[in-house]
Design goal:
It contains 19 helices and 21 strands. With 567 residues, the protein is an alpha/beta fold. Helix 6 runs parallel beside helix 7 and helix 12 crosses helix 13. Bound molecules: zinc ion (ZN).
Length: 567
């Protein structure tokens, strides 16, 4: 999915800033390495006092928490916790909020590889900036046999979209004769040069390639090694830890069929003890695949690679594309192109069979559905399965959910479907909302999009996903601000559909316990309760006390997993 370059610009406007963020990670890690042993011992057993959000519905707030050997021993009123602790346990008063580690419910972690080894176009606002980045990359990589990259925004090219002539001119001026294949920031289209078109045997007047035709270019993409993927995953882990993400879900993308390499990288990192985030994954399945074969492969991969920090838990189904590409599948046509409602990437009968096969093996279904047409297909297929087996405890999930009908929400609730929402995208860019979404969807539909509160009010388990690298960085505290305010503080426009604003507590519930539920981690994680692992964050402020605009500026000062400090 792709979106909102203004957001990117605001929070991540240059590669310099990117580098800056990573040098900060290094600094933090340096601090950590120099920790005295005594400090580590203290972390093993200590009482934290202050304002604690537990995410435990029976007792959402607490005054103190006693952790020992990586496990929460007691939590509640200060005097009770101290009474239960070993005599001599260190008491530490904390200023900001203490809360459980957070979950990223939908992030393309392996796609970091395109940022690490290709041209990084994220944050660029003009064609000139893109040209500069590509030329810079060519100069730095004179021996590259193919140039790839990610992050250009289709909206930067008004009318006709990105043009191959721009890339051809760069090649000519720099005397390079290699294919260029760049992926849009929403990962739903490519911008390629004439050499790439020729090598792929594909005809296009413009060099702007959509969704289904992207497959032609697979063979041109460079092949990355397990070591490359390990670097990419650790890169994401460093970045995500800065924002307090301790559990993350990766639905695999289809661009590179390097699933095995990426899975092997996770496996090796877990064996080497280098993962502190708990990663869970969904393996992709497409219409036309041999369903039984894919399911059998997933089951064997799951068994071979399963560890505490990594596990394949489900199957990812792409049902449609994105609104901005007119590829999201709507129940009614796009407002600006009568007769065109987008298209579903699965046939209903095939989808029913696939869902049934996945449910039968107790795997989780994870669906990409942007439009209400795609959601309808998913619901009909899920209802088909639910008629035969009770799926209400299977924790199947649907993500994006931009255009939905109220009755569809009720049907999701009935089957216990988890809604993996993307609050980062709620009117984060005025331009995007008024210049793309409004004309494409029409006023009525655009006003009803992303109905977060309706999902919550219906009793659905809601979680959040940044869709990284669509949203960079995956700053969950921006997400908190957007959930609560439903606009960026600097926006000059009125709040879009203010009835869908949610409270700080509801948002934190999404990020913590609900996220852990989505990943089947809630038995030991996601809330601060006696007996659960001591996975917690300390923020530099208390979101329950701060003015709404300040939520965007919250930072994670410390992050602990099993009582060990990882930030
Ligand atoms: Zn995605």
């Amino acid at each position: 999915m792709e979106k909102y370059s203004a957001l990117h610009f605001f929070i991540f406007c240059s590669i310099d800033l990117h580098i800056n963020i990573f040098s900060k990670i290094k600094e933090k890690q340096g601090d950590l390495d120099s920790f005295e042993r005594g400090v580590q011992d203290m972390e093993r057993e200590q009482i934290l006092t202050g304002h604690i959000y537990t995410a435990n519905a029976n007792m959402p707030f607490a005054e103190a928490m006693y952790c020992k050997d990586g496990v929460i021993q007691a939590i509640g009123l200060k005097q009770d916790v101290i009474r239960k602790a070993d005599p001599g346990a260190v008491i530490r008063k904390v200023r900001g909020l203490i809360l459980p580690g957070c979950t990223e419910g939908h992030a393309h972690i392996s796609s970091t590889i395109d940022k690490l080894y290709g041209v990084n176009l994220s944050g660029g606002e003009t064609v000139k900036e893109y040209q500069r980045e590509i030329i810079h990359y060519i100069t730095e990589h004179p021996n590259a046999t193919v140039i790839t990259g990610q992050g250009y925004r289709n909206g930067v090219f008004p009318d006709k979209g990105p043009d191959k002539n721009i890339l051809d001119a760069i090649c000519e001026q720099n005397n390079v004769m290699v294919p260029i294949v760049l992926q849009s920031e929403d990962c739903h289209s490519y911008w390629v040069n004439s050499i790439a078109l020729k090598q792929a045997g594909f005809e296009s007047e413009t060099g702007w390639i959509h969704e289904l035709d992207k497959n032609y270019f697979e063979s041109i993409l460079p092949v990355y090694s397990v070591e490359d993927y390990k670097k990419a995953i650790l890169h994401y882990q460093d970045l995500a830890t800065m924002y307090g993400i301790t559990y993350a879900f990766e639905p695999m993308l289809s661009e590179r069929k390097e699933y095995m390499t990426a899975i092997q990288a996770y496996k090796e990192l877990a064996e080497e003890g280098k993962l502190h985030i708990y990663f869970r994954m969904a393996y992709p399945m497409f219409d036309g695949d041999c369903i039984e074969e894919v399911v059998a492969q997933i089951l064997s991969l799951k068994k071979e690679t399963r560890s505490e920090c990594f596990e394949i838990i489900g199957v990812k189904f792409f049902l449609d594309g994105v609104i901005e590409g007119h590829t999201a599948y709507l129940s009614e046509p796009y407002a600006d192109t009568p007769g065109d409602a987008g298209q579903c990437l699965w046939r209903l009968e095939e989808l029913k069979k696939a869902f049934m096969a996945v449910e039968r093996e107790h795997l989780q279904i994870h669906v990409h559905a942007v439009g209400d047409g795609a959601l309808e297909m998913a619901l009909q297929a899920l209802e088909y399965v639910n008629e035969q087996v009770d799926i209400t405890k299977s924790r199947h999930s649907i993500t994006h959910l931009q255009v939905v009908k109220p009755e569809q929400i009720i049907r999701m609730r009935r089957m216990g479907i988890i809604a993996v929402l993307n609050p980062y995208w709620h009117l984060v860019s005025d331009d995007y909302y008024y210049q793309i979404e409004t004309p494409y969807l029409g006023k009525e539909r655009v006003e009803q999009e992303y109905p977060v509160k309706d999902f919550i009010n219906a009793g659905i388990i809601c979680t959040q996903g940044s869709d990284y690298p669509v949203t960079i960085p995956p700053n969950i505290w921006n997400c908190l601000g957007l959930c609560v305010m439903r606009k960026r503080p600097e926006s000059i426009y009125p709040v879009h559909n203010p009835s869908q604003r949610i409270s700080c507590q509801k948002a934190l519930e999404m990020f913590t316990i609900n996220g852990a539920r989505q990943l089947f981690l809630d038995d030991r994680h996601g809330s601060l309760e006696a007996g659960k692992d001591a996975d917690y964050l300390i923020l530099n402020g208390d979101p329950f006390l701060l003015p709404e605009e300040e939520l965007f500026r919250l930072q994670v000062e410390e992050c602990y997993v099993k009582g060990v400090r990882v930030l």
